[in-house]
Design a protein that fits this description.
The chain is an alpha/beta fold and 258 residues long.
């Protein structure tokens, strides 16, 4: 049975990759090459998607955090998984997002999370610090609806998503962490944020227990998190997650509560 499940998951990934190959050239070209440089000279590469917009309206901002395998300095690898779904014809037409996809440098991480005790460390990582500065700059330069700032990420980026909303709980209108995890002791501080968590039940790279623990902690804190556990999926849970139009529509409906 496990062999059949594994083959089925592999087939889904192959089909997804084939679709990505046929569409990625046109979609990735929509993401401009950018680099953030702060006053100290620290840099963060990122790709930016902007729909056609007018000078009067405000638009939702999506921050996408890639996984560990896409780290580097090519400012290209972070587009490999998931984020191109936000550039689909449907999402560009209906939701018209601004999307920021930063690239974490090699050997660095988004979340300052200790797997030894499951806790978030006091100081943010350098990439997370630079990302927070970048968001402030984007808000100043582009017509961002500050009541509709969303964050999502997969694997290392899933942990980064929980890290970001825990450190900046008043910034985000919603979050979608995929095959990640967070600090359960922070649940009460982020319980007001709409969150939809995704994971694969057969994930051997990041145990689904991390997501299950966050769902439990958030529920105990009075939140109502969405939770999708794919019963026959391993670590590639981001394939169905970011292909889910229901998730996309849900995400863009969310607005920050004051």
């Amino acid at each position: 049975m496990k062999f059949i499940q594994s083959c089925f998951t592999t087939l889904l990934v192959v089909l997804y990759c084939f679709g990505c190959i046929t569409n990625s050239f046109s979609q990735s070209s929509l993401f401009s090459f950018e680099k953030y440089v702060n006053a100290d000279g620290d840099t963060l590469n990122y790709r930016q998607l902007i729909s056609d917009y007018d000078t009067i309206s405000k638009y939702p901002l999506v921050i996408f955090l890639h996984g560990s395998g896409e780290r580097g300095d090519d400012n290209e690898s972070q587009l490999k998984w998931g984020v191109l779904n936000f550039a689909s014809d449907r999402n560009m037409k209906i939701h018209r997002p601004i999307v920021i996809a930063p690239q974490c440098p090699k050997n660095k991480i988004w979340a300052n999370f200790s797997f030894d005790n499951g806790s978030l460390q006091h100081n943010s990582t350098e990439p997370m610090k630079l990302l927070r500065e970048l968001v402030d700059q984007i808000i100043l330069e582009l017509p961002v609806d500050t009541n509709r700032i969303y964050i999502t990420g997969l694997s290392m980026g899933g942990f980064g998503t929980f890290d970001a909303i825990s450190r900046y709980p008043n910034l985000f209108a919603a979050a979608v962490p995929v095959c990640g995890g967070g600090d359960v002791s922070k649940a009460s501080e982020i319980a007001h944020i709409p969150i939809w968590i995704f994971h694969g039940a057969l994930d051997e790279a990041v145990s689904p227990v991390h997501s299950l623990n966050m769902v439990s902690a958030l529920s105990e804190a009075g939140a109502h998190p969405g939770f999708t556990l794919y019963p026959e999926t391993g670590h590639f849970s981001w394939v169905p997650a970011y292909s889910d139009t229901m998730m996309m529509d849900w995400l863009f409906r969310q607005r920050k509560k004051h």
